[in-house]
Specification:
With 159 residues, the protein is mainly alpha-helical. It is built from six helices and no strands.
Length: 159
């Protein structure tokens, strides 16, 4: 694998992700729960535009050097994502924002990995629903306003 080309590819993906996330964070408005859910809105947008996760996931396993530049760059990308999610989770007032961030990252990464595998129907949409429920469960705020936007019915909440 051409390390320089892969690092350039990864950097381009990060720029695209940051632009998309910033757009969805602005659109989410001031509610910190909506801002945290915007991470999954941004993921849905990228998936609709042809999210390509196979190369990224495969590269993590195929690169032989545990401390090589590609794995280091991938790990840094994941640390940045966790830092973003943790900051957003803290803003929600969740009792345990670290746990909420970790739960959301597991859902996020599961959606990304399964997007290209086809073994889960609409993994990004399912991850969005799970994320909404995790955020709501961790939130000390009233839920009514958070369930608006297509999830306002009892059916949308899984009730």
């Amino acid at each position: 694998m051409d390390t320089g080309a892969f690092l350039s590819y990864l950097e381009g993906r990060q720029v695209r992700w940051r632009i998309t996330l910033d757009e969805y964070l602005r659109a989410a408005g001031p509610d910190p729960r909506r801002r945290l859910l915007a991470v999954f809105d941004a993921l849905k947008s990228l998936a609709a535009d042809g999210l390509r996760c196979g190369a990224f996931v495969n590269a993590q396993f195929e690169l032989g050097e545990p401390q090589g530049p590609c794995r280091t760059a991938i790990a840094e990308t994941k640390r940045c994502l966790r830092a973003d999610v943790l900051e957003l989770a803290r803003a929600t007032g969740a009792v345990d924002p670290e746990l909420l961030a970790d739960q959301l990252l597991l859902v996020y990464e599961g959606a990304v990995a399964n997007h290209s595998l086809g073994n889960v129907a609409d993994p990004v949409g399912a991850a969005h629903q799970v994320a909404r429920r995790l955020i709501a469960a961790a939130s000390p705020r009233p839920l009514d306003a958070f369930w608006v936007d297509g999830a306002g019915s009892a059916e949308g909440r899984g009730a």
